[in-house]
Amino acid sequence: xxxxxxxxxxxxxxxxxxxxxxxxxxxxxxxxxxxxxxxxxxxxxxxxxxxxxxxxxxxxxxxxxxxxxxxxxxxxxxxxxxxxxxxxxxxxxxxxxxxxxxxxxxxxxxxxxxxxxxxxxxxxxxxxxxxxxxxxxxxxxxxxxxxxxxxxxxxxxxxxxxxxxxxxxxxxxxxxxxxxxxxxxxxxxxxxxxxxxxxxxxxxxxxxxxxxxxxxxxxxxxxxxxxxxxxxxxxxxxxx
Length: 240
Description:
240 residues; 45% helix; alpha/beta
């Protein structure tokens, strides 16, 4: 069963990547929104079901012309399927450029139009990246979804938050929506595709208005957001 699930997960990712990348290039990019809101969500949900993973979403479907920065806790390989499963309209995921080395995942990302962020050691390039995305958010071209934890070892805890995401949201006056991926410990594969049966719950921890934020108080604002995740994880671990 273990190898079955790992084969389904990796093989399914490859198939999805080929489908959405083909649709993107065949349509000269016109089908990227269709991939993002229809193909990828349906495919990812089906793949997870085949692996015994059910997803219960408690997220309200809302639409807004104002830019929004969705953030989520990033602690499992399941996130590779959960993020596209959300199917958020007019929303681009921010993902580390390091994943380009994984061909199936890179194809999936090309098909849904992700934004690749330069790796952490490329300081100047990262600063320019955040400036460009902030300008796009101000121009209401799209919203973004990303993890402020960045790349880190997956553990049953909330890693330290990077500042760049919050600088970006503050510069764009973008509302932050906190999404929590509640993955029970007994089914969490962490850094593998060895998924186990169970139910993942997606819920919102609320929204944060960044208007009025200043550089002087940014550290406190970041700590407040991270505290919401730390408290939520602690509560779910206690209940579990």
